[in-house]
Design brief:
Number of helices: 9
CATH class of the largest domain: Alpha Beta
CATH superfamily of the largest domain: HAD superfamily/HAD-like
Strand content: 5-15%
Radius of gyration: 19 Å
Shape: elongated
């Protein structure tokens, strides 16, 4: 890779594969509170930003606990139906009286992802330098669509979701499967993510060097893990 990857730990060598988390690393959730409030207002049920935030936090907590149930399109549809009902129940009146199909439509319209500005260029440079790129994420099957919609799908070599695989980070098995997809051993890979437990400690427990993405400077990297503020920090 000609030294493009600047964070290879001493003695490990330049990684032949880079494993990448998705949310918080490659993509961000784009203004869901404002979008949800707007979508509900369009349906004749205006709510304040505080109420939108409280309801969406309840829905997101439910989603995080159940996203691995959506391993295929049918499972995804069922999960979205349940999330919409959770969201509807958490909304104040009059929005709570909306049909669940309307709440679901508002919810899906509010959930949009965008790539962080530096991500496309960094991924392109890493691949041009010879690295295999594998997305490894605790996400449902819809991640494939998110990467396509954000233009990132053509920039990576493989995508691995916890829902499809059946176990999630920090489980060593998801990292082992990612290494298989990349065609490398643990010593030849680097994992990049924004979660201390799932990404940094999970990768280290699997024998993989790790970089912690700390975009707002609020995280404490475990020993032996380098922290960067954006993916630009991967390029030497």
């Amino acid at each position: 890779m000609g030294g493009q990857l600047g964070l290879a730990p001493a003695g490990v060598g330049v990684p032949r594969a880079v494993l990448l988390d998705a949310l918080g690393t490659l993509v961000a959730l784009d203004e869901p509170l404002a979008r949800l409030a707007l979508e509900l207002d369009r349906r004749g049920t205006p709510i304040g930003s505080g109420a939108a935030r409280e309801a969406l936090l309840v829905e997101m907590a439910y989603y995080r606990a159940h996203h691995d149930e959506a391993a295929d399109p049918r499972g995804l549809e069922g999960l979205r139906d349940r999330c919409a009902e959770v969201l509807r129940t958490a909304l104040p009146e009059p929005a709570r009286s909306l049909p669940v199909r309307e709440v679901r439509a508002a919810m899906l319209a509010a959930i949009r992802f965008r790539p962080y500005p530096e991500v496309p260029g960094v991924l392109a440079r890493l691949r041009a330098g010879g690295a295999r790129l594998v997305v490894v994420s605790n996400w449902d099957v819809s991640l494939h669509g998110v990467l396509a919609e954000t233009g990132l799908a053509p920039l990576v070599d493989a995508v691995l979701t916890s829902a499809e695989l059946g176990f999630a980070k920090p489980d060593k098995r998801i990292f082992a499967r990612a290494l298989e997809l990349a065609g490398v051993g643990a010593a030849q890979a680097l994992h990049v993510g924004d979660d201390v437990r799932a990404d940094a400690r999970g990768a280290r427990a699997a024998g993989i060097a790790a970089v912690l993405v700390d975009r707002d400077g609020s995280l404490t990297a475990p020993p032996g893990v380098r922290a960067v503020r954006s993916l630009d920090g991967l390029l030497g």
